[in-house]
């Protein structure tokens, strides 16, 4: 596919990095994954990593079926990845207490599909505007939707880390899956964890959608979000995808 792609991850000010990211780019389709582990210690780190590895492991089987019913197939793909995630945990008891957010972006010549759970995000942009972003499964998102807070207040809200959905081997929460029109030349997608978006302003995100932007712009903005946290930065993970 005619895509330009960059990614980066950083522990920020944390002792360990519980974020994980992965991707596949070939002639038929592209898949991008970002996950943010929850649960403390190594449980969250394993949850995010095992989920992404699960998506990659079953990719060949499910990608061949995407023409049938894309939304249903992506949902089944994520379910199968969670099954693989459960297999990778050595202890069933540990796996039950390990959670992760996830964002999945699938692109082929026919359409764009997203799957997400939690407050990691996907943005779709052109050089003039943010076309849309995934809606967080969180308390601040509910407050935003109710008109009680503004978009710029979400990252610093006291309940910013209160999620209403997340991925776990018990499959208690379902990912939200949506289908969109095919990617257009010049469009940019951004996948990121909350450690990236919570300190970035909307006009700054649009810098990443300008024709001259790329790896350097992405690195500068990731560094800026860490600095703005004043020693309290979460893990920062971001993937940048441009169609040309």
How would you characterize this protein structure?
There is one protein chain. This protein has helices at residues 43-57, 59-63, 70-88, 92-96, 139-145, 194-197, 202-207, 215-228; strands at residues 3-10, 19-25, 30-38, 99-107, 111-117, 121-125, 130-133, 176-181, 188-192, 236-243. The protein has a single domain (3-243), classed as PPM-type phosphatase domain (Phosphatase 2c, domain 1). Helix 1 crosses helix 3 (70-88). With 244 residues, it is an alpha+beta fold. It has a five-stranded antiparallel beta sheet with strand order 1-10-9-6-7.
What name is given to the CATH topology?
Phosphatase 2c, domain 1
The total beta strand count reads 10
Q: Would you tell me the structural class of the helices and strands? A: alpha+beta
Note the run of SSEs as H and E.
EEEHHHHEEEEHEEHHHE
CATH class: Alpha Beta
Summed up, the domain count is 1
Q: Biggest sheet: strands side by side, in what order?
A: 1-10-9-6-7
Globally, the shape reads: globular
Major beta sheet, specifics? Answer: 5 strands, antiparallel
How much helix is in the residues? 25-40%
Termini gap: 9 Å
Q: Would you identify the CATH H-level superfamily?
A: PPM-type phosphatase domain
**Can you name the CATH architecture?**
4-Layer Sandwich
């Amino acid at each position: 596919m005619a895509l330009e792609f960059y990614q980066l991850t950083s522990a920020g000010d944390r002792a360990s990095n519980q974020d994980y990211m992965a991707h596949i780019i070939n002639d038929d389709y592209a898949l991008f994954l970002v996950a943010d582990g929850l649960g403390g210690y190594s449980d969250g780190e394993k949850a995010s990593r095992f989920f992404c590895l699960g998506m990659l492991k079953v990719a060949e089987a499910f990608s061949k079926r995407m023409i049938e019913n894309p939304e249903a197939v992506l949902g089944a793909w994520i379910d199968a990845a969670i099954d693989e995630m459960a297999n990778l945990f050595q202890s069933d008891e540990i796996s039950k207490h390990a959670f992760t957010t996830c964002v999945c972006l699938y692109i082929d010549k026919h359409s764009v599909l997203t799957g997400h759970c939690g407050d990691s995000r996907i943005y779709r942009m052109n050089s003039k505007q943010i076309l849309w972003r995934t809606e967080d499964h969180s308390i601040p998102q509910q407050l935003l939707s109710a008109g009680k807070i503004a978009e710029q207040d979400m990252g610093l809200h006291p309940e910013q880390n209160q999620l209403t959905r997340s991925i776990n081997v018990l499959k208690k929460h379902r990912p939200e899956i949506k289908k969109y029109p095919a990617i257009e030349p010049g469009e940019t997608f951004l996948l990121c964890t909350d450690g990236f978006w919570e300190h970035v302003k909307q006009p700054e995100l649009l810098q990443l959608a300008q024709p001259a932007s790329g790896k350097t712009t992405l690195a500068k903005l990731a560094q800026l979000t860490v600095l703005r946290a004043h020693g309290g930065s979460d893990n920062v993970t971001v993937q940048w995808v441009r169609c040309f």
